[in-house]
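Summary for the steering committee. The consortium agreed at its last meeting that each partner would contribute one worked example illustrating the joint modelling workflow. Our contribution is presented below. We chose a case with several input lines so that the handling of multiple components could be demonstrated. No manual editing was applied between input and output; the record is shown as generated.
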Amino acid sequence: GQQVMQIPQYQHVQEGEDFTTYCNSSTTLSNIQWYKQRPGGHPVFLIQLVKSGEVKKQKRLTFQFGEAKKNSSLHITATQTTDVGTYFCITGGGNKLTFGTGTQLKVEL
Amino acid sequence: DGGITQSPKYLFRKEGQNVTLSCEQNLNHDAMYWYRQDPGQGLRLIYYSQIVNDFQKGDIAEGYSVSREKKESFPLTVTSAQKNPTAFYLCASATSGGHTDTQYFGPGTRLTVL
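What follows is the complete predicted structure of the assembly.
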């Protein structure tokens, strides 16, 4: 089945620094969704990318889908303490979903 | 107030007991899912239902059972056959389960086996 590698597993940053997490696949992906899960909370949908080379922005968050649709990234500019949590990607649909293992972000003052 | 709810939030179970976790949604979604999340790991699919009275096993269905008698409800039973049931259980729903559907997650149930 499809496999998605997500890196890094953990990231500690100082407030104000940038942060990037990547989801990489050896096969072409139909789509990719990004979710955020706060500590002790449940995942919340952030964005979906479908088109090759697609770039979407949400305030300080920038999402990219690679030209070959085999990788995706989530970049946060100037992190804040409210950005703390685990960010993970999902691809596929129905019972053919593949999950990234998540990147746990910690932001220190 | 639309959304997806799970109960209870915390659940303690003795070994050898079956327990049922509740999941209800009023979003009129056809598809519903159960996931298990262990510390430091990604989500793993337990069961998936795309329509009432139909459901499919996910990657880790052994020791679990579900029913989908109503569109709004998708309860999960953790049976005594599940060898390591202590985990965080998340229920989700989606419009139709297609590959572009957004998943809406419930708040989760933390199950601890004593």
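Residues 86 and 112 of chain B are 5 Å apart (CA to CA). The first strand of chain B starts at residue 4 and ends at 7.
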